[in-house]
Design goal:
single chain, 384 residues, alpha+beta, Endonuclease III, domain 1, Nucleoside Triphosphate Pyrophosphohydrolase, 7 strands, 42% helix, binds iron/sulfur cluster
Length: 384
């Protein structure tokens, strides 16, 4: 691959910056230079679409307006605010990072990419994004969109470590001449809006005269798609232990198969084992209660990263013992799902069972998060 000449690089930058300044989307995190707020947005945007992030971002910052507010609360409160966004490891790292910023950096994010990279959960991309967007430091920020744009501009086809380093070097060269804040965001925005993975809109592209992939006539072939390994199929049985509109959730200490913080009791089982039996044994061992699991009332399929969960949901009857008041097990109301730090699977299960078992429907009446004492049921969680 030939590096761009000085004249080429200058024209490329000029075109990118002019296009970005005229066409950029008005996104909440683009209205601030506050490094904490930019950090929150970058963490939320990992693996998640912009439209899905916006309401979470706004609510999260209302709840934790600065790094001190985030560092001061317990992890449960952070996970509850994150509930529904998934990939809770991001929230835990952000929370740990906030505490490091308060303890070691006096509550200010460091103006230095290497120091940013030392924060929990902050890799090269996020450090580069914070350093350039918040502080306008000449740091590249190469995410998947930017990598694709650069691969096409410079016709880098193969995905391998050496080519990744080449693309990082090209990005560094482009931001080295100033305007890092806008230049990085211009590359990100071009990848998000114009240079789409499968159907790049070259007719609308401001840098088309410089694009070697476009000149080849087959821009979508750059970069060559990575071969994906087949997801691992995992059979999971879920216990739906419900009374009225409440159901049992647990917080597995070593992380359960559903990957939330609070989840319906679940167990992985071998295909040859009866799922209901596996569930009864597992719940008895974990919670000291005896349940009788009925045949699956509904079945779901849910993908989590490289795993494809085939889930059977079993309505369960308590036969002996009672669900103890313990920090790792709780009754929750179906109507409070949005306030629960839980996985997408548990939400899917609760919604599916609300349809299958009509009494599990959320009760009409007070809005989410409030409880009208006149309608409080004898079997509400507080009565247990
Ligand atoms: Fe992407 Fe086409 Fe623009 Fe090249 S010309 S950067 S392939 S949109």
């Amino acid at each position: 691959m030939d590096a761009p000449t000085t004249t080429e690089a200058r024209d490329l930058r000029r075109r990118l910056l002019a296009w970005y300044r005229a066409s950029r989307r008005d996104l909440p995190w683009r209205r601030t230079r506050d490094a904490y707020r930019i950090w929150v947005s970058e963490v939320m945007l990992q693996q998640t679409r912009v439209a899905a992030v916006i309401p979470y971002y706004e609510r999260f910052l209302e709840r934790f307006p600065d790094v001190h507010a985030l560092a001061a609360v317990g992890e449960d409160q952070v996970l509850a605010a994150w509930s529904g966004l998934g990939y809770y490891r991001r929230a835990r790292s952000l929370h740990r990072g906030a505490r490091v910023v308060v303890e070691r950096h006096g509550g200010r994010l460091p103006r230095d990419a290497a120091a940013l990279r030392s924060l929990p959960g902050v890799g090269s991309y996020t450090a580069g994004a914070i350093a350039s967007i918040a502080f306008d430091l000449a740091e590249p920020a190469v995410d998947a969109n930017v990598r694709r744009v650069l691969s096409r501009l410079f016709a880098v086809k193969a995905r391998n470590a050496e080519n990744d380093r080449t693309l990082d070097g090209l990005a560094r060269g482009l931001v080295a001449r100033g305007d890092a804040r806008d230049l990085n965001q211009a590359l990100m925005e071009l990848g998000a809006l114009v240079c789409a993975p499968e159907t790049p809109r070259c007719d609308e592209c401001p840098v088309r005269p410089h694009c070697r992939a476009h000149a080849s006539g087959r821009p979508a072939e750059y970069p060559r798609p990575q071969r994906r390994s087949r997801p691992t199929e995992v059979a999971v049985a879920v216990a739906w232990i419900a009374r009225g509109t409440s159901f049992v959730v647990e917080r597995p200490t070593s992380g359960g198969p559903l990957r939330g913080t609070w989840d319906v009791p679940a167990v992985e089982f071998e295909p040859e084992t009866r799922s209901a039996r596996a569930l009864e044994t597992s719940v008895a061992a974990r919670h000291g209660i005896e349940i009788q699991a009925a045949p699956a009332a509904t079945r779901l399929v849910h993908a989590i990263m490289d795993r494809r969960l085939r889930i059977s949901v079993h309505p369960c009857r308590l036969v002996r013992g009672r669900v103890a008041r313990r920090p790792d097990v709780s009754w929750r109301d179906v109507s409070s799902l949005d306030d629960l730090a839980t996985s997408g699977v548990t939400k899917k299960v609760a919604r599916a069972m609300s349809r299958v078992v009509p009494e599990a429907q959320p009760a009409p009446g007070p809005s989410r998060g409030t409880r009208d004492p006149r309608t409080r049921r004898r079997d509400s969680p507080r009565d247990r």
